[in-house]
Amino acid sequence: MTKLIECLHSSVTELERGVHLLRRMNNPTELRSVIERVNELENLADNIFERAIANLFEQVNDPIEVIKLKEIFVAFETATDRCEDAANVLGPF
Fold first, then answer.
1. Average pLDDT in the 44-56 region?
2. Nearest CA-CA partner of 87 in 31, 9, 8
């Protein structure tokens, strides 16, 4: 879960940087880099999520605990998806 949270945090940090770059509109290359980095982080989050869910079903025996943890993982992964959506709005680079 920590790795997924780190991906989300990095995505949000990159988005913040991207928004500041939009204000100046003087460095499209750097803005493109932000968008690409958020997309890479979302792909990484997808991979982490898939492994985490597989491990969850293999290692946790309590069905209620599985459901709770799965929902938390889904929420974090969905948040990284939304970060990617936001990054894609920053520019068609």
1. 97
2. 31
